[in-house]
Specification:
20% strand; alpha/beta; globular; 7 helices; seven-stranded mixed sheet
């Protein structure tokens, strides 16, 4: 199974997805340092760190054929902790930009991560726009999960908005139920 990652940070790509035997095809992050670090771990995988240059780059064709896209765009303008948040800022729209990029490919599944308040941003309009853009070709399954319930190392809730292409959904087996945590992990490496 191949994947492309948007804004995931080195932690996702280097530890979680590789440990699941997913093969990276492309990597994009807004931080050139994280993109460089990803390149150290996966030297043959094309990577970019400037969203404004993706259209003019080979990213579009390289990204097009990955099976899965994992996206965790910056969400500082969605979080309730940010007292100066602007739901209409370019940063707030990165999740929509990531979705548009995803929809240009032939991906089977998309996994978009967002903070809990994302569905309420701008009175729910941003989340509705996200769902409307995806709906013609994908089933949208928003799941509010705490990674700790699935054996993860974090205890913060996040929306995991799963997009599944119609032909793939026919073979859907369902999402796993939370399982009790039997061991406390101090790092992602310990968990994996």
């Amino acid at each position: 199974v191949t994947y492309s990652e948007y804004f995931g940070g080195v932690g996702h790509a280097s530890y979680a997805w590789s440990a699941l035997a997913l093969t990276p095809v492309t990597y994009f992050d807004s931080s050139s340092k994280r993109a460089f670090a990803f390149g150290e771990t996966h030297p043959g995988v094309p990577r970019w760190s400037d969203f404004s240059k993706l259209e003019a780059s080979s990213f579009i064709s390289a990204n097009r054929n990955s099976d899965v896209v994992i996206a965790g765009p910056l969400c500082s303008d969605h979080t309730q902790l940010n007292m100066t948040r602007d739901p209409r800022s370019p940063t707030a729209r990165l999740i929509i930009d990531s979705l548009r990029l995803f929809l240009r490919g032939r991906h089977k599944i998309g996994v978009f991560e967002a903070v809990p308040s994302f569905v309420d941003v701008d009175g729910g309009k941003l989340f509705q726009e996200f769902c409307d853009l995806a709906a013609p070709d994908f089933t949208v399954m928003p799941l509010l999960l705490n990674p700790r319930q699935f054996g993860g190392v974090q205890t913060r809730k996040r929306w995991y908005i799963i997009l599944v292409r119609a032909d793939v959904l026919q073979a859907k087996q369902g999402f796993p139920s939370p399982r009790p945590v039997t061991r406390n992990y101090s790092t992602i490496r310990d968990f994996l």
